[in-house]
Amino acid sequence: MPDFPRTPTFDLSGKRALVAGATSGIGLACAVALAEHGADVTLAARNRDKLVELADQMTAENWMARTLPVDVSDVDATAKAVGDHGPFDILVNSAGQARHSLAIDTTPEDFDAVLDINLRGAYFVTQAVAKGLLAAGLPGSLINISSQMAHVGGRERAVYCASKFAVEGFTKAMALEFGPSRIRINTICPTFILTALTQSTFDNPEKRSWVLEKIKLGRIGEVEDIMGAVVYLASDASALVTGTSLMIDGGWTAD
């Protein structure tokens, strides 16, 4: 019989996953995807009631789900919660915020609000999960939900781009540090995904036309487009992947 290679497993059974920003949109989709593939998923976000509701619905599907009410902008409280409930084999950091305006109209308040969640919060929740893995001597996969706007510019998105470019930077630096400990870290970079938070963009005919013109596959992204990617990066199928960006942008950045 030929000694054929075998595809590495996408099974996440026995793995514990923390999903920050898990109550809606991409974060919720990622939580479901990981749970579908066997992970014990901890849903993290600020809204305690919503977390409990979603965890109950997920366990009704015979998935493993629990809750961790945290605000990632509260670095100390988040680090303590992660330390108390970890270690986590997988992190998906999907907590984020956007306040779009022309660059000349950016206020310090808007700048601080976006960077506080998208950069500061992302950095320190990643740090907290990594500390748990390092202390336990465990390998892991850390996944930051970034954006195509971490690789290109966009009108009215100077602050958002700044935050996501920075996420790409610390992801690469951490990959160098954590690699020898078998901890991988990568980003997922979606194009415009239809969620409750982006609905207003698509309701604007001019903005919708701009988006569709830039996406070469000719359609708006859906949360389901992210789900396979997060399972891949969380699983042994991506065992040699670290310090890189997985573009899910329909060809936007191919220009």
Fold and architecture overview:
The protein has 255 residues and is α/β, with parallel strands linked by helices. It has one domain (16-193, 222-254): Rossmann fold. It has helices at residues 25-36, 48-60, 75-85, 108-136, 158-178, 199-203, 205-214, 224-234; strands at residues 16-20, 40-45, 64-69, 90-93, 140-145, 183-190, 245-248. It has a seven-stranded parallel β-sheet with strand order 3-2-1-4-5-6-7, with helices on both faces. α1 (25-36) packs across α8, α3 packs parallel to α4 (108-136) and α4 runs parallel beside α5. The longest helix is centred in the middle third of the chain and has 29 residues, at 108-136. It is globular, with a radius of gyration of 18 Å. The N and C termini lie far apart (46 Å).
CATH superfamily: NAD(P)-binding Rossmann-like Domain
CATH class annotation: Alpha Beta
Number of strands: 7
Number of helical segments?
A: 8
CATH fold-level name: Rossmann fold
Strand order of the largest sheet: 3-2-1-4-5-6-7
The average pLDDT score comes to 95
| Oligomerization | single chain
Q: What gyration radius follows from the Cα positions, in whole Å?
A: 18 Å
**Percent in strands:** 15-25%
Fraction of residues in helices? 40-55%
Question: Major sheet: size, sense and barrel closure?
Answer: 7 strands, parallel
Question: Which architecture name does CATH use?
Answer: 3-Layer(aba) Sandwich
| pLDDT < 50 stretches | none
Order of SSEs, N→C? EHEHEHEHEHEHHHE
Query: Which overall shape is indicated by the principal axes computed on the Cα atoms?
Result: globular
- N-to-C span: 46 Å
- Specify the structural class: alpha/beta
Number of self-contained structural domains = 1
